[in-house]
Design goal:
The complex is a heterodimer. Chain A is of the alpha/beta class. Chain A contains 17 helices and eight strands. Classes of the chains: A alpha/beta, B mainly alpha.
């Protein structure tokens, strides 16, 4: 047994949100499996609720949004551990609320008056992280490389970062708002090639689905068309909303430029899991949670169990 | 040509300036880099972030009465390009909030807000999903504390506001 496996696992407080645990549980499964290989555990806390989501609830009542977000941050603070949100929307909400509380004493004061009614208090001292922070910054590429038993040589992968995991930089503490590289680096570690494409940091279109579905899919279609031009074999995402828009509803987007075209979309955790020899786990969930077939893609990876 | 409606008082503008990060509005000098960076503006000429900021500066609340403001993606590409780091999507969020009382909110957004107040989540969790999680070996996540949600929001009165509101327009699906 290697030394790493015997030492005590590092634990993060896991902020689950709604979409990943109850719509796309294969995200959570893959993330947990990959993190376990890296000796990291995720511990949920029953005090958490919906983050609340940052694309529509903000516009219904911003003050209510930041109050509920701050309550979740306060719950996380009680755990004494750093918090990781796998969903980009949840991460954005918690990170932005945390940042605004740090910057605005008046806001912090009135929120804490409200939190007092439930025995909570928010300080703003908590580190709120996403999966890219954990993998790229906390674990590091060298450590991850040691777990890559099945390199994805020959695959060309388009990294779709999405918006809310990256912007605004002062709250997300990511590497760059327009040219981030953390996901690129993680794709390269698996042995795959990173596809270069136009408008890399564009939106998937999903946030405006409740107000203008046609406009949303026009943007999704443009996005996929530009990725197609790069010759990518697959798209990799971190966000469940981007996944829903670009994978689950891909045919509505491709109908706008080429109904015959399709491209597999994988969660970053799935890509890493495959490269770490857990292809079977990914395949076992593919039929239920992937509408675009991933089988042909996985067959091309030589030597993968 | 766009005719700007002026208001006799500065209520809308003053309210925006009082909100967290609302005062970043005053740094806008109308250069238009936001609009050139906006992916929605690229496919819809009517969607013009620079003009939206001008309207808020002039206390023209018509923005809060139009569906258009809800087609902001909140992608923040405008904010990244803004030389003054004006919190543009946030200012549009504040305009959306002003539109709630008049029903200028997509039905999907109201549904989500009501679901969060009622269950602490945006989506319904079925028995079969709980079984699936169990089969996958994923832990039980329990039930969100909805009593706490009601308690911390009491002073804001969102539940009451949502009781009365009806969306003035339909919209897309909730997913």
């Amino acid at each position: 047994m290697e030394v790493g496996a015997m030492s005590k696992a590092q634990t993060y407080t896991y902020f689950p949100g709604c979409m990943i645990p109850f719509r796309l549980p294969h995200f959570e499964l893959a993330a947990r499996a990959v993190l376990k290989k890296l000796n990291i555990e995720l511990e949920a806390n029953p005090g958490h609720s919906c983050c609340p989501e940052p694309t529509t609830f903000t516009g219904v009542d911003f003050e209510a949004w930041i109050t509920l977000a701050a309550r979740n941050v306060a719950v996380s603070e009680t755990t004494g551990l750093e918090t990781v949100a796998l969903c980009s929307g949840c991460f954005h909400t918690l990170a932005v609320a945390n940042h605004m509380i740090q910057e605005d004493e008046k806001l912090k004061g009135r929120i804490n008056e409200r939190l007092k009614t439930v025995g909570l208090k928010v300080t703003g001292d908590l580190a709120v992280k996403n999966i890219l922070h954990v993998l790229h910054e906390d674990v590091g590429l060298e450590r991850i490389k040691k777990e890559i038993t099945h390199p994805l040589t020959g695959l060309k992968i388009a990294p779709h970062y999405g918006c809310h995991v990256v912007r605004p930089l002062e709250a997300t503490h990511m590497d760059d708002a327009e040219q981030p590289t953390w996901m690129d680096d993680l794709i390269e570690v698996t042995g795959a090639e990173v596809a270069e494409f136009e408008d890399k940091m564009s939106c998937c279109g999903a946030p405006i689905m409740p107000s203008d579905e046609d406009k949303a899919f026009t943007l999704t279609a443009q996005r996929i068309e530009k990725i197609r031009a790069s010759g990518a074999d697959a798209i990799v995402v971190v966000c469940p909303t981007c996944y829903t828009q670009m994978e689950m509803q891909q045919t509505k987007a491709t109908a706008k430029f080429d109904p015959e075209y399709s491209i597999p979309v994988l969660y970053l955790g799935e890509l890493l899991a495959i490269s770490m020899g857990m292809k079977d786990m990914v395949i076992s969930n593919a039929r239920r949670y992937h509408r675009v077939k991933v089988g042909p893609l996985l067959e091309r990876i030589g030597g993968v169990a | 040509m766009v005719v700007l409606r002026s208001t006799s008082d500065l209520a809308f503008r003053n309210w925006v300036l009082e909100q967290p990060e609302g005062e970043t509005l005053l740094r806008c000098y109308q250069c238009g880099r936001c609009t050139s960076a906006c992916p929605v503006a690229a496919i819809d000429n009517a969607f013009n972030p620079r003009l939206f900021l001008q309207k808020i500066l002039l206390a023209d609340e018509s923005l809060a009465e139009e569906q258009l403001v809800w087609t902001c993606l909140t992608c923040e590409q405008c904010e990244v390009r803004c030389p003054e780091h004006v919190k543009i999507p946030h200012l549009l969020i504040l305009a959306k909030v002003r539109g709630l009382a008049g029903g200028n909110t997509p039905q999907g957004a109201l549904d989500r807000a009501r679901a969060i107040l009622a269950s602490g989540r945006t989506i319904m969790v079925s028995e079969s999903m709980l079984k699936t999680r169990d089969k996958m070996g994923l832990p039980d996540l329990g039930q969100p504390p909805i009593g706490q949600i009601a308690s911390v929001l009491k002073e804001i009165g969102l539940a009451k506001k949502l009781e009365k509101v009806e969306s003035v327009y339909g919209g897309g699906s909730n997913e």
